[in-house]
Amino acid sequence: MTNALPRIGLFWTLTLALACGKDDATATNTTADATTTNTTGSGTTTSPTTSPTTSETSDTGASTSPTDGVASSSTGGECVTGFICLPDLGEEEVVECNVFEQDCKEGEKCVAWGMGGGSAWNATRCTPVTGDGQPGDDCSAPEGGLAGVDDCGAGSFCWDVFDNKGVCVALCTGTLDAPMCNAESTCLISNDGVLNLCLPSCDPLVQDCAGDDLCVPSGDGFLCSQDASGDGGQTNDACQGGNVCDKGLLCINTGTASSACDPNSTGCCQPYCEFPGSPCPNPDQQCVQWFAPDQFPPDDPRLAIGFCGIPQ
To answer: What is the pTM of this model?
Structure first.
């Protein structure tokens, strides 16, 4: 099944900015292109436009194309652009891998990381399994949320990292085209396929994610993701990321959102609404149905999910 409204142009690069003194989640490096989804079994993929083993550029613009699956990376531990601090990893040889095949050598796992010192998960690497943390367990990421080094066990990844502490979440199993998670979670594949996580499923009209986590779209369902909105993310604010709007809002293409949005911005935060007839904040908006009416049986509750936008 595919999203009934590809013109929305969802934003699905997730990014972790390493602020000096703490890890604050933010989102950057996105486009306004329509989202492509594939759904099979219990997993869902979101915009897996490239192989999960390929990364061509870092967020800093430097080439990071590896040769024979091996790349050299150096990050200095300094703060750049006045606010991002990079983990001090030194000069090291990094072996890229496949997050679904888990093709690292014994005692290692394949995870996403921020290659080149950027602020996004943009490549994969083999990293030693140093702990046995299971999904739901507290975890430690001593070099920060982008280094790919944590004490979660094989098949798990340290997520929602703050002050080098987070929670273990399961990596998706199956394949890129047919990802799988347990019944209570949905597979999110983002950042050109390198980030692969089983995140809790949710209802965007209820906003039933834990704490400040957001309920965001993924294929024919919705899942919980960390809130990266910071001081912004309010209705009609500009946005460029899947998780940069406040709880109850989502980032959609500005042209679909409202004339109240900044026309120079790529995306704009707008609220979910209950279809049909729920009120919207801007006079040029209506509550637009999220899924095509023939996508599910007539009594499927997902057909009540809508967003505030300009009817097309």
So the answer is: 0.67
